[in-house]
Protein 1
Amino acid sequence: MGDAVKSAPDHGCLLDHASGQQGFFTSAQARACGFNWNMLSYHANTGRFERMRRGLYRLRDFPTYYRDEVVAAWIAAGKEWAVVSHESALDLLELSDVVPNKVHITVPRSKRHHPDLPGVKMHTTTRPFRPTDVVTYEGVRLTSADRSILDAAEAGTAPEQIEMAVHEALERGIISPTQLEQHARKRSHRVRRLINGALDQAHS
């Protein structure tokens, strides 16, 4: 069951939601904290809340996050099931120099009918996420280093960026070369070749 809707606006309740989401909150969360549509509009018009996209707001005075657009896309896609992935996950994990031209989000295939979101590249997957496939980074759910590398490689990220990501992840000890190689075997021949080449180069 969801949270009971409060009869009066509770700013502390709203801050609790926003604090775990880099200052963002949804209209549904605001309603649960006692903010009806008129109150949301009032605070948005006076500048206390920033309207980011339909159904998504941000506390104006909350410290700015350096990847606000990623957090906004993740929440809008459905934080209960969506994860930041592919090049966007590599960027957040600081594993490569790739600059994504869209925010990459992965959702289960059952959520493939989600409305399009501006500036978002939505991926669906039939591969269920293993517990080790998803990590939480600064409150945001994203694919783990090895899953991000494999997904980005499969989606066509430049080979040199994949090689850099493998090298960085190995240097920081956040991937196992054996596991990465094993997981790569379940991908296309091109991906397996790219990953094996990156591992060989890292070990040379």
Note: Residues 69-203 form one domain.
Protein 2
Amino acid sequence: MDGVAYTTGKEIDEMHKEINFALPYIGSIDASRVEDEIMGVLVHEMVHCWQWNGLGTAPGGLIEGIADWVRLKAGHAPPHWKREGDGDWDAGYQHTGYFLEWLEGRFGEDVVVRLNEMLRGQRYHEETFWRGLVGTPVGELWIEYGKSLKSKEQGVADDA
């Protein structure tokens, strides 16, 4: 298969999941990173087994970002990941994962847990969802996040 890995439901019912991992990808990993990368991908895919998705209406980038946020929290972020405040907040993967990490600092360590719980049993509507979760539209939060990254970059540049 192409890609890295994916998780899917089984025909039995939605409670049964299957994780598929691409052997060519595993073979391409640098020997010094094989164990950590395999663990990181498995952590990411295991999240998909237990996370909620707003009855299928949540942005795919949010779903992937939550999985990479867990990977990040578990200490399996690869060295090439970086924090970026450009593009869309829901671009997914580490892009959204680092944004969720920033939200934790702003709204508490349980914010992603609360976010996931809100995706359980109800449809995702961006405006009402984010106002209900943290009281602020996600677009405004994304702008703040981008500014915080630029401030850190300038602080590093000023220190040099």
Note: The first strand starts at residue 5 and ends at 9.
Protein 3
Amino acid sequence: MTSKTATGAFWNPWRLAGWGLAATLLILPAVAMNFTAEVQWTVSDFLFMGMMVGCVGLGLELAVRATRNSRYRAGAAVALLTGFLVTWANGAVGIIGNEANPANLMFFAVIAMAIAGSFAARFKAPGMAVTMAAAALGQFAVPLIAMAIWSPPIDMDLARTLLFNSVFAGLWLLSAWLFRRAPSAACENGAP
């Protein structure tokens, strides 16, 4: 039997809106496939997107449960969104050249660094700020490292790549700034 508090938390309008948006993100490609040949998703595409959306949703749920601090929650939301967008853009069209370019694999190292750093920081706001700043630096460095490793230069529109990548680095920095502005005891439960 659920308590009134647990039931009220389940029917929270923000929670319903968030998971509703997640479901919509999965339904849209299925609907689009009926109207255009441009969208051709396989079962594995839907499973991968479901996993990505589910991880972001779960991460947000944990951050919201861990603290009432809005800056910490916003920092977590921006970090999760950035990881999602980097993964999505990288898999769909590629950030450097096209999605088959091996240089794009380095962006997954940035996301892995953000995840590992979050655990190392024990999800405490000061450590999260440092971790997200390091992710921003890593994000910005990937195209430069790719140009240094692959000679002659890899298939890359340099201006587009640097601009696109700078947006992601800026999002990591925004997350770092939000965590920096959160009180150091923002995550009361130890881990979001």
Note: DSSP finds seven helices and no strands in the chain.
Protein 4
Amino acid sequence: MIFDDYYLHTVAAQAVRNRLTHLVGWLRKEVARVTVNVALVRILSLGSGPARELRLLAEEPAFREAVAVTCLDFDPQALRYARGQLDGWLNGRVTYVRDNALRFASGPHRPVQPYHLIYAAGLFDYLNPTQASRLIEDCHGLLASGGRLLVGNFCVELPANERALIE
């Protein structure tokens, strides 16, 4: 019981518990904002994992019709899972890319068309400060005019005992 209470109140546990709700709300609001000026909102999910937030939003016709999504993850199983969740909802409007986010944003295969929204829910928890700032800079180069970048992070200095748990 004491262990349960400890783990449920860590910074990481609290962040993960609230992440999905926050992402869904942010994406819904930002897609509505961008659709005022463009017909198709281009979204990049860095370290997309299972893409649960996209799956929930895909049930909304207004979201489904307004977006083209790129799910980027290094883990092929995560991309397969995301495909299983999104195909049938966003058919033809999702691209699945297996790559390292640090290479994708600055590499030779970087996308030509800019994104209106780029977000990373948990990826930055695994990056050191130098990698994080470089990726943020590279992502800014991928944004369309007026585009937005959302970076989720447990905290700047995650305690060592909690970092061990997420790794």
Note: The longest strand covers residues 143-151.
